[in-house]
Design brief:
The chain is an alpha+beta fold and 540 residues long. The protein has 21 helices and 13 strands.
């Protein structure tokens, strides 16, 4: 596709050109070279370099031995093949400050290895990483630290027992994909199986802030799953959820429940951390990050986005390598563009690109970073590349519902609006109560409006407004859809409400910031303009 007008400056950046720095080491992936910060070169064999590449591409994730062997030897692992362990041992001797007490490449018993090098700053390398009772005195539990206690099988059915253990195990894995979380491993968690655990005692023993309890019960042809998130310091309830579904395919049900729980828990943990940050006398970088996150549900208005931007700016002033704050600051800038809340679109998108490029150099495995880079490409008429980026984000985090949402938007911009709804339904299946679901349902409504299915458009857009009534872009689209159905009074009421949220919005501004030049997309936009005029939205 051709570039959209005014986007010559927004071009894809080549990634991973800046050397990665961790634990006093410098890894230059382009030059295939590792050195100490003093300049001393560290010679690596081809296998050791391949292993290190694999680790730095997946920081904080457990990688199985078979996957590592496939990466370094391009062959499947044979029974009792320990060549990966030998290679890990050689690499540890070259990069670990204490190879006998490894802190960068951590063994996960029965699972594989996890690379923690990019999570630590050099001064911390000599500190213990285990967040247990042995952690140095005076250090409180880490942020976003949690144990998923084994789910109770209330029915006693052996088939149900496998299901309960599977939910516990999968949820532990999926929560560990959330940026910044520390999740107690399954082996430790399962030592509490069948016991009545006092979460305060568990919190003290493992030095974690949160505990998740759950139970599974089958009643006839239905399966009920109850979960509750607890503050491990006080044992107070933070959040609870219930799933009550007909029993069909147990594995499919398990997958759906785990993905929904992981998304909901990610949001609830962020809210809980924001509450702690509000009570902090001297907020640090992550405190400001969570304060910015707490405002995400308040609405896509200039004032609210400015307040979020303030906290991310403060977070980055305190820690310039706070990747989460970099990505979220980019989201704020992108939100101003995507909601037609600014006129300097090109400059805003350059800032988005710059923050994301830096974030992905610091953390190449950032699923949210790849997802937003995908959205940026989609909104600048590079749809194929944008969809590929979103798919890459899903390969990293299968529960990232927003990536499905943006793929749905890409279908609109490429003239295939009839395909949008399926992607939005995928996003909602994964995370039906997500704070970002207003945008996915808005995409579905716009797709229907482009297709001339105005009744369906109104239904989707009302759903978007229900998710968050303070998002002006949904209300502008709803006003247009209502007007096309000759529901003029309702349309004008919506137009007045959304102009209160975004007084600077005009049809001319909307027309000037077009996301695609595809002729089918442009024809759909004409229907939008006509509806907006009928609703009373100003032309200029």
């Amino acid at each position: 596709m051709r570039d959209a007008p005014g986007f010559d400056a927004v071009k894809p950046l080549r990634e991973a050109v800046t050397p990665l720095r961790f634990a006093g080491l410098v890894l230059d992936l382009d030059a295939c070279a590792l050195a100490r910060e003093s300049g001393e070169a560290i010679p690596l064999t081809r296998g050791e370099l391949a292993l290190l590449r694999m680790f730095v591409a997946r920081p904080g994730r457990v990688i199985g031995r078979d996957a590592l062997l496939d990466a370094v030897a391009k062959r499947p692992m044979q029974p009792f093949d320990r060549s990966v362990d030998v290679l890990v041992g050689r690499l540890r001797r070259k990069i670990e400050p204490d190879p006998k007490g490894p802190r960068l490449i951590v063994t996960v018993p029965g699972e594989g290895y996890r690379f923690d090098g990019l999570r630590l700053k050099p001064p911390q390398v000599a500190e213990p990483l285990a967040f247990s009772a042995s952690t140095r005195e005076g250090a409180g539990p880490p942020r976003l630290s949690i144990i998923v206690l084994p789910f109770a099988n209330l029915g006693g059915d052996p088939e149900q027992e496998y299901f309960a253990d599977g939910v516990t195990d999968s949820l532990t894995t999926d929560l560990s994909r959330i940026s910044g979380t520390f999740v107690i491993g399954r082996s430790t968690a399962f030592t509490y199986k069948g016991k009545t655990a006092d979460v305060r005692q568990v919190g003290r023993e493992l030095n974690v802030r949160y505990a998740l309890e759950g139970s599974v019960q089958r009643e006839g042809n239905r399966m009920r799953v109850n979960v509750q998130l607890l503050d491990a310091e006080t044992a107070s309830h933070i959040w609870a959820e219930r799933f009550d579904k007909p029993v069909a395919d147990l594995f499919e049900m398990q997958d759906e429940i785990v993905s929904r729980l992981a998304n909901a828990l990610g949001q609830e943990l962020a809210r809980a951390e924001a509450g702690r940050a509000y009570r902090t006398a001297n907020p640090d970088s992550m405190d400001h990050y969570f304060l910015g996150e707490a405002m995400a549900h308040k609405g896509q208005t200039v004032a609210n986005l400015a307040r979020r931007r303030f906290h991310y700016d403060r977070a980055l002033a305190l820690d310039p390598e706070n990747v989460d704050a970099l990505v979220r600051r980019a989201w704020v800038e992108f939100g101003l563009v995507a909601s037609w809340l600014c006129e300097d679109r090109d400059e805003r998108l350059r800032r988005v690109e710059a923050d994301l490029a830096r974030a992905l150099r610091l953390r190449p495995d950032s699923a949210t970073g790849h997802c937003l880079m995908g959205a940026l490409r989609i909104y600048t008429d590079h749809v194929v590349e944008g969809v590929a980026r979103c798919e890459r984000a899903l390969a990293i985090d299968r529960n990232l519902a927003a990536a499905h949402g943006y793929i749905g938007a890409a279908k609109i911009f490429s003239g295939r609006s009839e395909e949008t709804e399926a992607h939005i339904l995928k996003a909602l299946r994964i995370s039906p109560r997500d704070r970002r679901a207003w945008s996915w349902t808005d995409f579905a409504g716009v797709a229907k409006l482009h297709l001339g299915r105005d009744d369906e458009a109104v239904a989707w857009l009302y759903r978007s407004v229900e998710f968050n009534p303070n998002m002006p872009v949904s209300r502008f689209c709803l006003a247009a859809a209502l007007a096309r159905l000759d529901r003029i009074e309702e349309a004008r009421k919506e137009a007045r409400t959304c102009l209160e949220l975004n007084p600077s919005f005009t049809i001319a501004l909307y027309r000037s910031q077009t996301n695609s030049r595809h002729p089918v997309y442009l024809a759909g936009r004409e229907r939008m303009y006509q509806g907006m005029r009928l609703a009373g939205i100003p032309e200029q």
